[in-house]
Every structure is written in C-alpha cells, then in structure tokens.
User: Which sequence fits this backbone?
C-alpha cells in the first residue's frame, strides 16, 4: 500500500514568494494533519482535518499560512508571502479516526526560504 | 489539556544491550492512547508501538516493548538487543480515545545513539 505522499521533497525559494506544499493521504484515512518541525520548536501541529473539514487550526502561525482539503485524497498547505523563519520540515500525516490507530507520516518537505 | 514530558538528555547504549527511553504524561481524559515514533537522521517519522490506557497488558512489537505504569503516568519504551540502526530520535505521543479530537500531543524527543 502506498503511504502518505508529499511533494515536493525539497523546496528552496526566495523570501516573499508563494509556497505550496501538497499531500496525498493514505486511502481510507479520514483524518489529515499538517506539522512543522524545527530544531528550536520541535514538532508542532499546524492544522488537522476530519473528513475534509478543518477541525483545529490553532497551530497555524499567522494569516500567511492557509490549508485546504478539497477532497479526501488531497490537501495543500500554502504560505504567502514566505519568510526566512518559515524554513522548516513540513510533515503531512493521516490516520483513520478510530481510537488507537497511529498517524502515518509522509517523508516531509524540507523548505528553505532565502 | 495533554502534556508529554521527555527529559532525558542524549542516550547512549552499547550494541546488543537493552535501553529504556522515558516518557511521562499528564491528561484529564479518562481514555487515551500512547504512541512511540522513531525519527532517524534521514528524517521520516516511523510509528513503533501503541498502548491503550485500558489495555491489560503492556504492548510489545518485536524488539520494542512499552513499560506502561498508569498510576505513575509513565509509558517508557524499552528496546532490546540494540542495533546500530536504532540510532535515532524517539518521540512519545498521546491522544484521547474518546470524543472527536484526534490530534496527537508529542514530547520533545530523545536522541539515542547506539555504540558498536
């Protein structure tokens, strides 16, 4: 079975540019999570969806960040405009909603904003 | 609110020895689950093992076992017969298993280095 698929794996762009990160969850999983990982702050939950509906976006740092899940098989995380402090590894994870089921993570997108 | 605490500094273990990675938690949820993840230097997050708060027995998964002490609110990961490939960062996490909230709360992680 295919795991969680994220693209791109690496992104280097200049400050002020729009960045779009993409995620395809595991088929049949109805919860999707976006995380950010940095050395300073560790692993932070940005937002999560249940059945394509955003449930908790309290971790989204500011209005420059937005996330969408137009259907059960695709989600995007957009940063506009990007800033150097947004440089991090961004993970997408998915899980079934049933209790006790682990979240399965994608390989992450390593984002560098110059 | 949920909280996971992993306070050990970097851990070292000799190859083939066992090692215990500590995790304590705090929650007001009556039913919850505890998870351990491994993150090697390549960066991916790998699920290792799960323990439910009402499970009668400690979880085991190959060389991984979970020393679950509910009264102490601890869920320590035990790795037996360490291998060089076990060198990685290890994260403890938890979530409530009742209600609609499915998000995980993660600890800050512990770095494990296995010496040959």
Assistant:
């Amino acid at each position: 079975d295919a795991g969680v698929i994220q693209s791109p794996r690496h992104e280097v762009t200049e400050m002020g540019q729009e960045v779009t990160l993409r995620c395809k969850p595991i088929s049949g999983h109805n919860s999707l999570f976006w995380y950010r990982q940095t050395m300073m702050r560790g692993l932070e939950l940005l937002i999560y969806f249940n059945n394509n509906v955003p449930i908790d976006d309290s971790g989204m740092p500011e209005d420059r960040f937005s996330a969408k899940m137009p259907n059960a098989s695709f989600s995007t995380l957009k940063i506009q405009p990007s800033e150097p402090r947004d440089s991090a590894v961004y993970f997408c994870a998915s899980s079934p909603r049933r209790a006790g089921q682990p979240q399965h993570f994608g390989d992450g997108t390593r984002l560098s904003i110059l | 609110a949920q909280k996971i605490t992993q306070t050990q500094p970097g851990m070292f273990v000799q190859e083939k020895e066992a090692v215990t990675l500590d995790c304590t938690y705090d929650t007001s949820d009556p039913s919850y689950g505890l998870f351990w993840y491994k993150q090697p230097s390549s960066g991916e997050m790998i699920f290792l093992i799960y323990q439910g708060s009402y499970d009668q027995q400690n979880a085991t998964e190959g060389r991984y076992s979970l020393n679950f002490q509910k009264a102490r609110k601890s869920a320590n990961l035990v790795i037996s017969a360490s291998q060089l490939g076990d060198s990685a960062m290890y994260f403890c996490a938890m979530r409530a298993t009742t209600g609609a909230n499915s998000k995980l709360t993660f600890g800050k992680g512990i770095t494990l280095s296995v010496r040959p």
